């Protein structure tokens, strides 16, 4: 245990889940550290190098650490959290400490969510740092269940230390200490759920939309996440700088950290800012909904009766979009356009709208796509908007159709998708794989 006083643990409420967090330092810049799948904000101070690493950071930033839901001192949950839920937790912690804007430091599997958060909320992220990160680990899908069983069997024995922090695994006592860290951070079943979810994550399609200045850091011999995945991550982001360090450690505070800390300080305390044009570009899930055969309905019901039905439809649209934390951009006459900061909420809103519209005697179709949009006053624009419109055009009545990007970003969210084939979308390059959503 360190001799100096350690930070106190507090809790932030994210929905109905309590997220444990700590702060260290009082620097003028906030830095939120997003952990990998092993985390226990109190016991990690027992591990060699961790506290001193944070104290070095705290000389120039206020360091904010937390345990993701299902880990460490945060509430345990039944299933592995989706990227969307993990974003909610970061936002809840930032709000709890009064941080309106921060540098986001994603470690290992925390990198994917950090990228998504930075693209979705560029006004809340000043700098993005990614250490030992990756865009996807679908290479883990081969023999996944065998890997999960093996990991669960060894969990809590300290075996992971020889992969995650080999430079620190010098003695049986160090391995035994790490074994305790494993047991405190998560149960074997939770780890299996996390690994299963991580094998499905793929954020490559959104990397080009990240407008936040980004620094990607990786050790050349990383035994947990190969260096090639770090290079790929950086190459797909237009604002990213990539730095390699010698060593095999995946744990950020293990091994030689002097050059790493220097590069972090230079990057975070620099004077680069996001331009006004870039701040008007965000990542969002775009939803288009349309009433099928609206012209025929006007003829059947008459103008006055149809107007009342449309008014009910419009009010219902507004209520459901707000309930799912979206923003209604505009009515399109016989449908609507809305955006959401989470793809899972967008899909659930579309499904709820379809079911509720049936109660009004209406048949609707919907299309969704996640991508970069441009904020134009009260309106929006950009390729993602056109893509969502084209996806909707392919949707039959009573169906919610989504692009592959949406399915990739909702892994673990409890939604189901059925293949609807590959399509050419008017005005958009290539062929697009489309899927029908269901709860």
Q: If you had to describe this structure to a student in words, what would you say it looks like?
A:
With 439 residues, the protein is of the alpha/beta class. Helix content is 36%, strand content 25%. The chain is built from 15 helices and 16 strands. It has helices at 50-57, 83-96, 110-120, 144-154, 161-164, 172-185, 188-198, 227-235, 258-268, 276-279, 294-301, 303-323, 343-359, 383-393, 404-409, and strands at residues 10-14, 17-24, 30-34, 62-66, 102-107, 125-131, 214-219, 240-245, 281-291, 326-331, 335-340, 364-376, 379-381, 400-403, 416-424, 431-438. The strands form two sheets. Strands 1-2-4-3-5-6-7-8 form an eight-stranded mixed beta sheet, with helices on both faces. Strands 9, 10, 11, 12, 13, 14, 15 and 16 form an eight-stranded mixed beta sheet that branches. A hairpin with a 3-residue loop joins β10 and β11. α12 (303-323) packs antiparallel against α13. It is elongated and about 80 Å long. The chain starts with 9 loop residues before the first strand and ends with a strand. The model is unreliable at 271-279 (pLDDT under 50).
Please describe the structure with a list of short key phrases separated by commas or semicolons.
439 residues, elongated, 8-stranded mixed sheet, 25% strand, alpha/beta
The low-pLDDT segments are: 271-279
Task: Please give the share of residues in helix.
Answer: 25-40%
The first-to-last residue Cα distance is 48 Å
The largest β sheet comes out as:
8 strands, mixed
Mean pLDDT: 88
Number of helices: 15
Percent of residues in beta strands?
A: 15-25%
| Main structural class | alpha/beta
Strand tally is 16
Structural shape: elongated
Strand adjacency order, main sheet: 1-2-4-3-5-6-7-8
């Amino acid at each position: 245990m360190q001799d100096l006083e350690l930070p106190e643990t507090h809790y932030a409420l994210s929905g109905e889940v309590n997220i444990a967090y700590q702060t260290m330092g009082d620097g003028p810049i906030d830095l939120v550290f997003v952990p990998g799948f092993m985390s226990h904000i109190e016991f990690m101070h027992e591990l060699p190098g961790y506290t001193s690493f944070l104290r070095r950071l705290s000389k120039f930033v206020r360091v904010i650490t937390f345990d993701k839901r299902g880990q460490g001192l945060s509430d345990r949950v039944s299933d592995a959290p989706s990227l969307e839920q993990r974003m909610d937790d970061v936002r809840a912690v930032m709000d709890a400490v009064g941080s309106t804007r921060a540098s986001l430091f994603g470690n290992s599997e925390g990198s994917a969510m950090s990228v998504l958060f930075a693209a979705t909320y560029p006004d809340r992220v000043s700098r993005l740092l990614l250490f030992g990160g990756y865009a996807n680990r679908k290479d883990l899908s081969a023999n996944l269940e065998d890997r999960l069983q093996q990991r669960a069997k060894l969990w809590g024995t300290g075996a992971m230390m020889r992969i995650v922090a080999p430079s620190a695994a010098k003695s049986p006592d160090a391995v035994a200490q790490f074994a305790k860290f494993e047991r405190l951070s998560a149960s074997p079943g939770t780890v299996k759920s996390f690994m299963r979810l991580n094998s499905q994550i793929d954020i490559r399609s959104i990397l080009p939309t990240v407008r936040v200045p980004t620094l990607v850091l990786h050790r050349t011999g990383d035994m947990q996440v190969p260096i090639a995945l770090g290079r790929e991550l950086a190459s797909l982001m237009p604002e990213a700088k990539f730095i390699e360090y010698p060593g095999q450690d995946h744990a950020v505070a293990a091994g030689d950290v002097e050059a790493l800390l220097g590069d972090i300080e230079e990057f975070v305390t620099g004077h680069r800012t996001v331009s006004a044009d870039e701040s008007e570009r965000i990542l969002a899930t775009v939803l288009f909904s349309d009433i099928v055969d609206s012209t025929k309905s006007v003829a059947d019901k008459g103008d006055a009766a149809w107007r009342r039905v449309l008014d009910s439809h419009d009010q219902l649209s507004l209520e459901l979009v707000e309930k799912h934390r979206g923003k209604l951009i505009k009515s399109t006459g016989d449908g609507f356009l809305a955006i959401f900061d989470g793809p899972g909420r967008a899909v659930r809103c579309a499904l709820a709208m379809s079911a509720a519209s049936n109660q009004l005697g209406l048949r609707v179709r919907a299309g969704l796509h996640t991508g970069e949009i441009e904020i134009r006053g009260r309106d929006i624009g950009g390729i993602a908007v056109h893509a969502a419109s084209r996806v909707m055009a392919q949707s039959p009545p009573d169906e919610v159709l989504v692009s592959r990007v949406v399915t990739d970003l909702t892994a673990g969210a409890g939604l189901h998708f059925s293949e609807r084939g590959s399509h050419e979308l008017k005005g958009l390059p290539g062929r697009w794989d489309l899927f029908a959503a269901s709860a």
